[in-house]
Amino acid sequence: MAIISLLIFTGCREEELPYRPPDLGTPPAPILIPPDAYAGEDRIVELPVNETVLRGESNEWDPDLSFSWRKISGPDSLLIVSKDALQTRVLELEKGIYEFELSVSDKKSLTSKDTAMVIVGALSSNPSELVFNFQNVDQFFESAVFVFYNFYNYIPRGSFFKVFVKRDTTAAWEEGIQPLGLADNYPYSFSLWDGNLWVWSSGPSLDEKSQVKIVYD
Prior knowledge:
Layout: E1 43-46, E2 52-55, E3 66-73, E4 79-80, E5 87-91, E6 96-105, E7 111-121, E8 128-133, E9 139-140, E10 145-148, E11 161-166, E12 174-176, E13 188-193, E14 196-201, E15 211-216
Parallel strand pairs: 1-7
Antiparallel strand pairs: 2-5, 3-6, 4-5, 6-7, 8-15, 9-10, 10-14, 11-12, 11-15, 13-14
């Protein structure tokens, strides 16, 4: 037997409901990222020189950033020439350990901070010293750079120190200089970035027979 289903329409119109978009919930708040702030490398100043340069870094392409330097610890004697500049000279330093803070703010009032240390002093008549060769440095790059990671594990943090280099072709130790600017060029140089010491030569490359000596108080 065939079963026949009949649909009977009564003539009633189907109710039209207004369109309601799907509920996607409350949109997440935008992620606000503060500007970069890097106070630069720790500086070593040997008396009688009593000045140095603080070289901060940030999002230099952003014209709305503002900068501020301040001393957060150290001797009272100092003069920050341009407190609201990313890079500034610091004058009238005296023996001791200074710590400077760089604050970088944007137009949304988001701020980042970083610190740099300036060590002012001179070697005593009986300093301590450490000598390193190729085998006991932390890393040696093909670009002939000796790297000492976590340098303050080798000497007490805040110690005044000097760097010397000796090649296998020379009998004397030659002093390395910490450059003040990118244009400075010395036979041997060093930098102290993020607590890591970098030593390099602007002349013939350092090699496996080169040595580095750290003299400190």
